[in-house]
Design a protein that fits this description.
The complex is a heterodimer of chains A (about 210) and B (about 800). Chain A is an all-beta fold and about 210 residues long. In chain A, about 0% of the residues lie in helices and about 40% in strands. Chain B has about 800 residues and is mainly beta. Chain B has 4 domains: about 130 residues, Sandwich (Immunoglobulin-like), CATH 2.60.40; about 160 residues, Sandwich (Jelly Rolls); about 325 residues, Tachylectin-2, Chain A; about 130 residues, Galactose-binding domain-like (Jelly Rolls, Sandwich). Chain B contains 4 helices and 53 strands. Classes of the chains: A mainly beta (about 210), B mainly beta (about 800).
Chain lengths: ~210, ~800
């Protein structure tokens, strides 16, 4: 149940401001010479930082390797490093109706030796949910195929030119206080006559809410 | 129409992570550039399907050769062997007409080998295009070494000024006028394999889809509004009426600009169209039977007009016999295992022809109409055309004696004895016989006069005028003297349907559910497309037939209203989507696979060319008192954003449900919509909506689920329109409140996602990308499947989402 749960907000922070009631025991009648102790107690509640919604990624590059080429199409595949979305906010801290989503888009692949670029439309992905919790309210995005493919969902043969959905939640408030992880199979599909050489693209992932 | 638009608040980007992806080095450059969009225009280029799509070059009468499959293939299991070559041009040919275009460049590859011992050590071969007439162009050549496979490998560009409307590719040896002087040098056998012509795919042919409403809501004639069909023959079997029709749509070719087709050319027609109905209003399109022509069931015939149908048990096997005119010169029959086939030919020559006894004087040995009598004896009626010139002019006009009756053999595919004259007054063609109360009724179409019928003449009193349907009544199916003439059964159809609807007619009569019906044709759909100047494309009509107490027939009045609906339509079953009471703008097409309603051995059709605003409708659907709770369809989305609106009683009637049609592209899937309080009898309109300018979906079948008798799964759903990064998403969620896991499929016009085994209390959720900055309001469906007390249950939940505009 709490497999993926990380309450990062409990970590003590130096700038915490103490606050809390000071409780005194009730006054008592005392005879001269008696001595009474006054017990002074204080309960200090754990400091609550505002929670945060954050994204991390387990790597900063991936090399695509040729795999699955045909006579007409050369295909290069790899795996997007695992992306983790962590939400430490309390339910009250989440704006009503909010829903977070991670989107990704890629730049054209540019060659290192002046060869013509390969447009980002040739790069597609199949998101793969690693940990989506148990409520079923976090789901990876649908596959996006390339401009060389027939669509597999309506209009999805566009590649990662514009921002495409990697993972999202239906309701941030319902899934807060947990972290979720996803990766994706990346595939570059180029015409068989693509120029040989080394190419690079930048894939930008953005967390929205 | 109450489309709500919501402007979403601008969202912030909370974090950005940049990663780099890199392609491994080591790409190897490959040779000839080929556009990914190019396709191979050659069919069966490897000869793995035998000689299919190939034939011997026949550009000159002398270019003969023999093609045969050979296992000595360059690749695969088969190649073609060319023997008995008569000229240097004798070689295998494939017709690329309509596929290749002037100004385009194509890449041609092929493998060729020759082996004859007396041949030269090397030999040049050509790939050549025949552009029709005497125009030939050598495209690519190769010099082969004897006994080794040589490779054609080159490109060719069709000159911009070349008329490529005829373009036939073939393989040959270099031309010489007298190749027979040295056959070893010029006429050697050779083998060919792996032929490929890569290039831009051919342009789509102009649409033949009829975009007007050809059959108006509420009317029952013409029977269908999405295609033509003539010479209808009504045949009753298994509670359905089948109409067999000359496929007038085959040569229909409306100009993309003017919408006007050239006039009908009967010589183009070698298919028979079949439609059927259980109620005489909602007709199911079964597509076309390829009867004649090189790929036809009976390839020894070249046309198929004016069908006639009969059923008989032969040798213990129920068979269906489809008779047809092979042009004007002969008639033939093919055999079906059911009224919808599959079809085979039991004959290798025509059934009725110049050697049929008693038919020698019949000029047009066509229009065959069978009758199987109650005692099992079968008869065929046929014939027509100009009267014998041996008769005086007045007799040629009034009693042309051009129709015949003949006994059919017990096998139904042979004739017995000699044909006898049916002496029908003013007869022209289209003989047909039905039986009622022990008497035989022969009906036929009358001629239009002219020199074929004795020149200007005055018809005898009571005889038919031109282009009418007359009839005769006899006690014997083989005895038809002129005295059995009983009058005009149906005047020319133009009397009822006005300008542009004249011309020939062709009728039949059938009995269905205790009543008699008369079939005829009229170019009424053609008139609705093109106004009063029609091009001869005819449509099937039906009227009820009424008899007088003495057995004579009350003259039929042709109406657009047509025959009454025999029974209400039952929606609680899987039925074909090409079941049409009325329709607008759709076409039908055959696809592979079984028919959900009619079985695996008959053709399956789907609705195609479905655009925004097109619709199909069913007449008098009986939902019963408990009503329907959902409707499902087997569809294949062709783009995003399509859905089906279900409305009652008219195009603008109450909206009772929406089916989102965003299945994975190219895949058939079942989609559903929840229905609101639909009970009783209604006309049902399926209205197709989505982005304009593109085909939305193909639809195979429909089924309605009744509201009674089944518990529902406790599943609730919701849908939202969202903006993320300036683009609209449709977020759909469904929660399983059942105490067991259920499977849930979320369906939207923008995609479909299935979740297996959603746990109790858990959800199915997806946010579907629309890739648009704004979307219109629509509906999403959650389709839950699970078990309640061990019984499989499917529950449909439809929820609406609002339209949204996402500011960038």
């Amino acid at each position: 149940m709490s497999r993926g749960r990380k309450r990062l907000a409990v970590a003590g922070a130096a700038a915490a401001v103490l606050a809390g009631p000071i409780a005194l025991t009730s006054p008592a009648a005392a005879a001269p010479g008696d001595s009474d102790d006054v017990r002074v107690t204080v309960d200090i509640e754990e400091i609550r930082e505002p929670g945060v919604l954050a994204m991390s990624i387990a790597g900063d590059s991936v090399a695509l390797a040729e795999n699955g080429s045909t006579l007409l199409v050369r295909q290069f595949a790899g795996t997007l490093p695992t992306v983790t979305v962590t939400d430490t906010r309390t339910a009250e801290e989440v704006p009503d109706g909010a829903a977070w989503a991670v989107l990704g888009s890629a730049t054209d692949f540019t060659g290192d030796a002046g060869q013509p670029p390969i447009s980002a439309g040739h790069l597609g992905w199949t998101p793969n949910l690693i940990d989506g919790g148990t409520a079923g309210l976090v789901t990876e995005g649908e596959e996006v195929v390339t401009v060389l493919d027939e669509p597999t969902q309506p209009g999805n043969n566009v590649g990662l030119v514009d921002q495409e959905l990697l993972v999202s939640t239906f309701d941030s408030e319902a899934v807060t206080g947990d972290s979720y992880s996803v990766n994706a199979n990346l595939f570059l599909r180029a015409p068989a006559d693509v120029a040989a050489g080394s190419y690079t693209s930048t894939l930008t992932l953005s967390l929205f809410e | 129409m109450n489309q709500r638009l919501r402007r979403a608040a601008r969202r912030r980007a909370a974090a950005i992570v940049v990663i780099a992806t890199m392609v491994a080095t080591g790409l190897v450059a490959t040779a000839p550039p080929v556009q990914a969009a190019d396709e191979d225009l050659i069919l069966n280029g490897g000869f793995e399907s035998g000689l299919g799509n190939w034939f011997v070059n026949n550009g000159n009468a002398t270019d003969s050769a023999v093609l045969s499959p050979t296992p000595d293939a360059y690749s695969g299991a088969s190649a073609v062997l060319v023997t008995a070559r008569a000229t240097t041009g004798s070689g295998p040919m494939q017709d690329l007409s309509g596929k290749v275009r002037a100004g385009q460049t194509y890449a041609l590859t092929a493998r060729v080998k020759y082996e004859n011992a007396n041949g030269p050590a090397t030999k040049q071969f050509f790939a050549t295009m025949h552009y029709g007439g005497g125009t030939y162009t050598n495209l690519v050549s190769v010099v082969a070494t004897k006994g080794q496979w040589a490779r054609f490998n080159g490109t060719f560009t069709i000159p911009a000024e070349q008329n490529a409307s005829t373009a036939r590719l073939f393989f040959e040896t270099p031309w010489t006028s007298t190749p027979s002087a040295d056959p070893d040098l010029h006429l050697m056998d050779f083998k060919l394999d792996d032929v490929s012509v890569l290039g831009a795919p051919p342009p789509a042919p102009p649409s033949k889809t009829i975009e007007v409403v050809g059959k108006l809501p509420g009317e029952h004639n013409p029977l269908i509004g999405h295609k033509f069909g003539a010479d209808g023959f009504g045949f009753v079997h298994g509670g359905r009426v089948y109409m067999y029709l000359t496929n007038d749509t085959q040569g229909y070719a409306p100009d993309p600009v003017t919408g006007i087709s050239p006039g009908i050319n009967y010589g183009n027609i070698n298919q028979i169209t079949v439609i059927s109905s259980a109620d005489l209003v909602n007709w199911t399109d079964h597509g076309e039977i390829q009867v004649a022509g090189p790929n036809g069931v009976a390839p020894f015939t070249s046309n198929s007009w004016a069908p006639g149908m009969a059923r008989k048990v032969v040798g213990g096997t129920e068979k269906f016999f489809l008779y047809y005119a092979n042009g004007g010169g002969s008639s033939n029959v093919i055999t079906g295992a059911s009224p919808l086939g599959p079809w085979t030919s039991e004959r290798t020559t025509t059934l009725i022809n110049g050697s049929t006894p008693g038919a020698e004087d019949v000029v047009w040995k066509f229009d065959p109409a069978p009758l199987v009598d109650d005692d099992g004896e079968a008869y065929l009626y046929f014939g027509g055309g100009p009267a014998s010139t041996s008769m005086p002019p007045a007799e040629r006009f009034n009693n042309p004696k051009n129709l015949r009756a003949i006994d059919l053999g017990d096998d139904m595919v042979s004739t017995e004895g000699s044909a006898v004259v049916v002496d029908a007054p003013v007869s022209f063609e289209a003989g047909h016989v039905f039986k009622r109360d022990g008497r035989y009724y022969f009906s036929y179409s009358s001629h239009f006069g002219g020199n074929d019928f004795g020149g200007p003449q005055t018809p005898l009193p009571g005889y038919p005028g031109g282009g009418q349907i007359g009839y005769m009544i006899s006690d014997d199916p083989m005895t038809w003297p002129k005295e059995t003439y009983a009058g005009v059964l149906f005047p020319n159809q133009s009397q009822f349907f006005g300008a542009g609807t004249g011309g020939n007619n062709h009728q039949s009569v059938f009995e269905f559910e205790g009543r008699y019906y008369f079939t005829y044709h009229a170019p009424t759909l053609n008139k609705r497309i093109n106004g009063n100047t029609t091009q001869g494309y005819r449509s099937p009509h039906i009227q009820e037939l009424a008899f007088n107490p003495d057995g004579t027939i009350q003259q039929v009045v042709g109406t657009y209203a047509g025959a009454e609906q025999v029974k209400n339509f039952n929606p609680y079953r899987v039925f074909e989507a090409e079941t049409l009471g009325w329709s607008k703008g759709i076409a039908t097409a055959r696809i592979d696979g079984p028919s959900a309603e009619f079985g695996a051995s008959v053709p399956n059709l789907v609705l195609r060319d479905v655009d925004n605003g097109d619709w199909t409708a069913l007449s008098s659907v009986d939902f019963g008192t408990d009503g329907a709770r959902s409707v499902s369809a087997k569809v294949r989305a062709l783009g995003a954003g399509g859905h089906v609106r279900v409305r009652l009683d008219s195009l603008t009637g109450p909206l009772v449900g929406t089916i989102p049609a965003g299945t994975p592209i190219g895949e058939w899937a079942e989609v559903s919509g929840e229905l609101d309080a639909v009970s009783g009898v209604h006309d049902v309109y399926f209205v197709y909506e989505g982005p304009a300018g593109a085909d939305l979906v193909e639809i195979d079948s429909w089924t309605f689920e009744p509201a009674t008798g089944q518990a529902e799964l406790p599943v609730t759903g919701s849908a939202q329109s969202r903006c993320v990064a300036g683009k609209a998403y449709v977020a759909v969620q469904a929660r399983n409140d059942h105490d067991e896991p259920v499977d849930i499929t979320l369906q939207t016009p923008y995609g479909t996602r299935s979740f297996a085994d959603v746990a109790p209390g858990a959800n199915a959720y997806q946010s579907f990308a629309t890739r648009s900055a704004s979307i219109a309001a629509g509906s999403a469906t959650a389709r839950a499947t699970g078990t309640i007390d061990g019984t499989a249950v499917t529950t449909i939940r439809t929820t609406d989402y609002p339209g949204v505009v996402c500011a960038g």
